[in-house]
Recover the amino acids of this structure.
């Protein structure tokens, strides 16, 4: 009976479903300038310029086709901080010595004479990161942040950079000599060799930044704080927790309108299919064309200071499976030949006798941590002595 | 009385007959036989015979045998009343040369009661019994179960008949045994053609000759209670009741009624009365009463009353109602007077005709754009999960659309969902749906009539600019307690009705609930739905008291609640509450006054219990409380029927109450309560000059609105005009115009009405919605009045409909008007409909071509929606085809089908992408510039109606159906996500993406 009930309920729940769908776009994509980034006082400002591209354009293409412009930060004291153009539309402006008590704006001028600017605004001070911590329930770790807006901040944004050390599954006892052996010459002495000490690919480091900004508002609350916001959850079997995990959170304050803009941008770009989802629409930003005020642009640029805090996590990793299950003895085909291309390109010997089918082989990831996407470059501030 | 007649007959028999003891029987109820077939063994004709009765043999008497009651009847003459002879005193009789015996008296006590004809095949003796069982079942019974084609008195559309059953027995070794003619050893005995030689005389029956009880004893004693009034069996009582009804109906048909005790010098004169159901005595509302020409007509009110101005002389009063048999009453109008009429349930097209009265009604009604549905109709339209659904039935009508299945609300002729006034017993229903639109909020068990005004909105309605959906609940049965119980896959419903004081005070009580919550709780946690909750329930109560024929008081109450949580910490709840008291008074035969007052409440709450942000948890609620009062007088004056009155609505609207949950630091906040009053007065006239081809329905309503704090006044006249020209009785041309004002707005930025949408009264910044509609149509009934063809066109304009700015904050916004924009709307369309209401196949097919656009009324530069140009309204679906039908295999079994095709609704989709920081972002098109894929759905249902057996206490009906038979994945919406800013994917949401089979059981008692 219970199964029948479950079946009925599941059938009802499954009746409404979400399916992949691709609409046919009949019109052209409007040309629209995109300006992203904030004026960061006390550090380097990073402003990205770009355009809107048709749906389906590769990210790499979007980063290449960027407008050529001069980007400067100006303040009401007449100071001008000129940007340096980098690849991918990135403009770096040194505002590390810009005064905190001035009012700023971003000014952009294109080669064709078009000018854009943001309104003048004061500097949003950085909130205090009062706590950065984690808890674990055995399956996941949950990272929490608490912020204090002090006297004036009610809207917050924080971003984070994760850095982690991990290792390959095995330290290999043998390696193969570069170059494929010929099918007729499979002399083990010419195929296998001992690993060199400098060929230590066991420990690696990797790093990434968050994609979606974390936003919070204390508007409508009695205290302008963010308390224990669970902004990130990581499974305990994730490679990030394998050896040592570090997260650096950088927080900033912002205006209510700026937070609403970024939040709206995030919502309409990550629609869940909820029956009661608001109909998506474009919200105006604060980058204005000085030539044509009716021109729509994308971007909300504010001026702020940032603060950061770092947290290390270790000892919570749960190995998801027995790595020895990844190892295998190569099997020859019916004619006694091995698929050497596949074996030597995608796999590495790990242990055992020095023969093709005597040794235990595994994927590159078994012995080379770089195959996981990381590098052997250890951050200078990394607290252990692994190499 | 019957006993007195019996005594007189006995006395008469004693005086007139030497064989008087024979007449010591009961008088038979003289049936004015209204049914097909008959209850006699062979023929209604009495024939000469011999009977052994109470020990004496009587010869040369007129005899017959009632195979229904199994009684022997004797008649002194052709004009005398038949007498029923007592079975215990009658061992045998001979009639028409055939011999019948009472086997029980012969000693075969196991034989069923009754008489047996003695037969032989030349070798064996057989005993043949013929039973006629009274059955009540819709259908034409010619040639069916013993009702022969040759029956000269055969009548169509008779709901009752006698089911003939023949039984054969033999006696072997002293045992009484049933045999089956035509089989085995009894092959020679053919029941269909018994040869004359097979009939035996009593003397030839060797088995019976030894039966001592058959010998005449000579006794003449009468058993005790001989003349006692019979206590009729339930079947007999039902038969008598049915006969009474039939006789009543027949008397209407056969008689000519004189109306007017005081002859009038000149016409026209007022004829009025009440129309009731013959079976229940309940007054019938919505019955079209017209004269012979069809040009003088009216509809009965909720109390069944009608009033017409008829010319003097002979006429025919025609009564038409889609679920009742047509009734034509011949009258001679001599002066003003009254005539009450009863109508009977229609048989052949019962529940197969879905919408509106018969087609001729369109030619009599002056207004246009009115669609009527009855609750029986609703239950037969296939729907998801088998639950009869009022709103889904409304959606099968041309000109009515929705933004998607499982969405609340509906759109009429390019109007938004909030522009529909939904009234339930006069109370306003702000959210007409359960479970976010899967079910409607109305229990079909208690719903009587549903009227949708798409145009030509009567002058007494106001407050919304698009349409009026007026739903009324039925009165309780005045005679006895009745009820119904329904079981579906997701829901159950029950209703009970009956008298509190017989024929004076009645009640009707209904309730519905769902077990979806219970089902969801039983899901394993791995399903992902185990934390979900979804439930609803509603209760209806109605009490009606008839002081007398002219005064009626009705109290109605409605309460519903919804709550749902799906895989999250957010809970939605909303509830409707409506209480109304209505008093109807009738005077001077046809003048009516209706006064009603009530209280409505709509309350919704969102609880954010986020575990991720315990300091930010809150409860947000909005509430509408409104009191209303209205009065309307209808007064016939010659060829005019005046309607005048007024109404007022007092609003108390709480647009937002924010309350922190325990431990939260959310600051409690309450937006200022909006208080306003909306009084209106109106006067209208239906002018039907004589029996000419023209009629005009015109009126003026003046609505006003006064909001307090800050004080603001709005008001304006609303014009309602519609006219009809009928050059022929089956052809009409109509045109109409109506303007409306609306002083309350639904604040929403979702495609479908969401549980958290709020309502907003007009104030200094938010102006009233205004709109007008001009419409015209032609109506033609062809093929012997079996097929209606109608073509209606309309043009509609609206002003001050609210759309929203990009990124608008619609809840707890003290400056809401800053986030809203005013739009003007225009819509137009043509609706073609073919409707067949008789025959085995009934239903309709309609095609609608329509457009609906909006345009922002202000110039906000680059932010102006669509640059200030017209854009598609969210409910703009240009092409719409609907096919609804029912095919009856028999009167118990039918199949219903429903086909729906429409253009996909407009949506806003991404037309570009860009990088913003590390995230991939989307840029959207102009508002509603694209469309989701077209919609197509086919539903089928197989209906099994209950047998109309009167003996049964309960009647079970069942529907087995499938919603979305083709399993088409219709898009409810399409959306795009960058999956957290990394990679773009497009998706389609389909609410019912597969076939939804269902079984629905309904029990009536």
């Amino acid at each position: 009976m219970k199964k029948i009930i479950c079946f009925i309920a599941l059938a009802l729940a499954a009746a409404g479903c979400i399916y992949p769908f691709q609409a046919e776009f009949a019109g052209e994509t409007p040309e629209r300038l995109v300006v992203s980034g904030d004026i960061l006082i006390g550090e380097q400002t990073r402003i990205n310029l770009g355009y809107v591209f048709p749906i389906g354009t590769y990210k790499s293409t979007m980063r290449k086709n960027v407008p050529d412009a001069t980007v400067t930060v100006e303040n009401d004291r007449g100071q001008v901080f000129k940007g340096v153009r980098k690849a991918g539309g990135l403009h770096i402006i040194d505002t590390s010595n810009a005064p905190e008590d001035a009012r700023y704006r971003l000014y952009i001028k294109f080669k064709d004479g078009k000018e854009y600017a943001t309104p003048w605004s004061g500097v949003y001070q950085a909130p205090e990161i009062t706590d950065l911590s984690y808890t674990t329930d055995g399956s996941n770790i949950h990272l929490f942040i608490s912020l204090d807006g002090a006297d004036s901040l009610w809207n917050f944004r924080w971003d984070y950079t994760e850095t982690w050390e991990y290792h390959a599954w095995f330290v290999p006892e043998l390696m193969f000599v570069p170059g494929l052996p010929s099918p007729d010459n499979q002399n083990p002495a010419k195929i296998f060799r001992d690993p060199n000490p400098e060929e230590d690919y066991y420990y690696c480091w990797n790093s990434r930044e968050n994609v979606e900004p974390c936003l919070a508002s204390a508007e409508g609350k009695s205290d302008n704080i963010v308390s224990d916001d669970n902004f990130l959850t990581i499974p305990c079997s994730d490679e990030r927790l394998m050896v040592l995990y570090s997260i650096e959170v950088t927080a900033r304050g912002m205006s209510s309108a700026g937070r609403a803009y970024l939040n709206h941008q995030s919502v309409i770009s990550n629609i869940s299919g909820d029956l009661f989802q608001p109909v998506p629409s474009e919200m105006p930003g604060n980058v204005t064309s000085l030539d044509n005020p009716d021109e729509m642009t994308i971007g909300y640029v504010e001026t702020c200071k940032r603060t950061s805090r770092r947290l290390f996590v270790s000892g919570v990793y749960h190995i998801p499976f027995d790595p020895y299950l990844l190892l295998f003895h190569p099997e020859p085909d019916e004619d006694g030949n091995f698929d050497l291309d596949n074996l030597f390109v995608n796999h590495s010997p790990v242990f055992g006798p020095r023969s093709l089918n005597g040794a235990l082989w595994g994927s590159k990831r078994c012995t080379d941590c770089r195959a996981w996407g990381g590098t052997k470059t250890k951050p200078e501030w990394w607290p252990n002595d692994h190499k | 009385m019957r006993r007195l007649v019996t005594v007189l007959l006995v006395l008469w028999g004693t005086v007139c007959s030497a064989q008087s003891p024979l007449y010591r029987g009961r008088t038979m109820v003289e049936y004015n036989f209204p049914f097909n077939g008959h209850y006699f063994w062979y023929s209604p004709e009495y024939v000469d015979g011999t009977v052994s009765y109470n020990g004496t043999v009587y010869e040369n008497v007129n005899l017959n045998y009632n195979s229904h009651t199994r009684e022997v009847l004797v008649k002194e003459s052709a004009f005398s009343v038949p007498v029923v002879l007592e079975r215990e005193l009658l061992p045998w009789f001979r009639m028409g040369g055939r011999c019948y015996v009472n086997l029980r008296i012969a000693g075969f006590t196991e034989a069923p009661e009754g008489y047996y004809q003695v037969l032989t095949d030349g070798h064996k003796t057989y005993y043949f019994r013929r039973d006629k069982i009274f059955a009540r079942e819709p259908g034409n019974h010619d040639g069916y179960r013993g009702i022969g084609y040759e029956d000269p008195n055969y009548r169509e559309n008779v709901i009752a008949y006698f089911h003939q059953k023949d039984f054969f027995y033999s006696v072997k070794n002293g045992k009484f045994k049933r045999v089956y003619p035509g089989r085995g050893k009894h092959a020679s005995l053919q029941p269909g053609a018994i040869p004359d030689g097979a009939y035996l005389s009593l003397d030839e029956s060797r088995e019976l000759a030894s039966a001592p009880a058959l010998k005449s004893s000579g006794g003449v004693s009468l058993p005790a209670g001989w003349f006692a009034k019979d206590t009729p069996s339930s079947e007999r009582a039902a038969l008598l009741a049915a006969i009474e009804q039939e006789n009543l109906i027949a008397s209407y048909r056969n008689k000519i009624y004189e109306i007017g005790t005081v002859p009038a010098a000149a016409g026209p004169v007022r004829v009025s009365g009440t129309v009731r159901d013959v079976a229940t005595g309940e007054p019938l509302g919505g019955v079209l009463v017209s004269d012979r020409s069809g040009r003088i007509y009216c509809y009965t009110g909720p109390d069944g009353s009608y009033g017409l101005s008829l010319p003097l002389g002979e006429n025919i009063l025609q009564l038409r109602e889609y679920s009742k048999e047509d009734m034509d009453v011949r009258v001679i109008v001599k002066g003003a007077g009254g005539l009450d009429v009863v109508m009977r349930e229609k048989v052949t097209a019962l529940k197969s005709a879905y919408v509106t009265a018969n087609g001729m009604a369109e030619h009599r009604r002056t207004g246009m754009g009115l669609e009527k549905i009855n609750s029986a109709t609703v239950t037969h339209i296939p729907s998801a999960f088998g639950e009869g659904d009022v709103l889904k039935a409304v959606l099968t009508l041309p000109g009515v659309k929705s933004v998607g299945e499982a969405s609340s609300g509906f759109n009429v002729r390019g109007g938004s969902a909030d522009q529909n006034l939904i009234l339930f017993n006069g109370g306003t229903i702000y959210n007409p749906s359960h479970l976010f639109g899967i079910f409607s909020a109305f229990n079909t068990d208690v719903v009587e009539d549903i009227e949708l005004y798409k145009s030509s909105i009567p002058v007494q309605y106001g407050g919304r600019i698009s349409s009026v959906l007026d739903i009324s609940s039925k009165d309780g049965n005045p005679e006895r307690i009745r009820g119904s119980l329904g079981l579906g896959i997701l829901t159950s419903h029950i209703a009970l009705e009956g008298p509190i004081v017989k024929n004076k005070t009645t009640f009707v009580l209904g309730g519905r609930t769902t077990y979806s919550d219970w089902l969801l709780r039983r899901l394993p946690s791995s399903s992902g739905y185990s934390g979900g909750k979804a439930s609803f329930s509603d209760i209806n109560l109605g009490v009606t008291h008839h002081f007398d024929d002219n005064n009626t008081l009705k109290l109605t109450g409605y309460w519903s609640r919804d709550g749902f949580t799906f895989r999250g910490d957010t809970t939605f709840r909303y509830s409707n509450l409506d209480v109304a008291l209505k008093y109807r008074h009738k005077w001077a035969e046809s003048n009516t006054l209706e006064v009603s007052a009530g209280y409505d409440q709509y309350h919704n709450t969102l609880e954010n219990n986020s575990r991720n942000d315990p300091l930010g948890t809150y409860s947000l609620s909005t509430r509408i409380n409104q009191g209303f009062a209205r009065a309307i007088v209808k007064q016939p004056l010659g060829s005019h029927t005046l309607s005048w009155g007024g109404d007022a609505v007092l609003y108390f609207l709480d647009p937002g109450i924010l309350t922190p949950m325990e431990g939260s630091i959310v600051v409690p906040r309450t937006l200022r309560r909006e208080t306003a009053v909306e009084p209106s007065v109106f006067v209208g006239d239906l002018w039907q000059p004589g029996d000419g081809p023209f009629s005009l329905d015109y009126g003026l309503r003046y609505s006003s609105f006064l909001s307090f704090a800050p004080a603001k006044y709005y008001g304006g006249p609303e014009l309602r005009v519609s006219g009809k020209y009928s050059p022929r009785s089956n052809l009409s041309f109509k045109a109409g115009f109506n303007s409306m004002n609306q002083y309350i707005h639904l604040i929403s930025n979702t495609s479908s009405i969401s549980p958290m949408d709020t309502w907003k009264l007009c104030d200094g910044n938010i102006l009233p919605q205004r709109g007008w509609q001009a419409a015209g149509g032609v109506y033609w009934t062809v093929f012997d009045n079996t097929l209606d063809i109608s073509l209606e066109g309309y043009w509609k304009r609206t002003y001050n409909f609210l759309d929203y700015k990009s990124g608008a904050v619609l809840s707890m916004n003290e400056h809401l008007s800053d986030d809203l924009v005013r739009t003007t709307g225009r819509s137009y369309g043509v609706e073609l409909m073919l409707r067949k209401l008789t025959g085995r196949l009934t239903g309709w097919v309609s095609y609608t071509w329509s457009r609906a656009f909006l345009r922002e009324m202000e110039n906000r530069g680059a932010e102006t929606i669509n640059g200030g140009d017209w854009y598609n309204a969210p409910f703009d679906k240009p092409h719409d085809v609907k096919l609804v039908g029912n095919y009856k295999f028999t009167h118990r079994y039918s199949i219903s089908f429903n086909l729906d095709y429409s253009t996909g609704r407009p949506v806003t989709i991404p037309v570009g992408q860009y990088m913003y920081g590390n995230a991939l972002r989307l840029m959207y098109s102009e508002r509603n510039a694209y469309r989701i894929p077209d919609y197509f759905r086919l539903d089928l249902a197989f209906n099994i109606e209950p047998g109309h057996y009167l003996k049964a206490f309960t009647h079970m009906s069942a529907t087995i159906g499938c919603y979305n038979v083709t399993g088409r994945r219709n898009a409810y919406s399409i959306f795009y996500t960058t999956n957290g800013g990394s990679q773009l994917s497009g998706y389609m949401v389909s609410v019912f993406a597969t076939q939804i089979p269902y079984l629905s059981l309904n029990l009536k008692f």
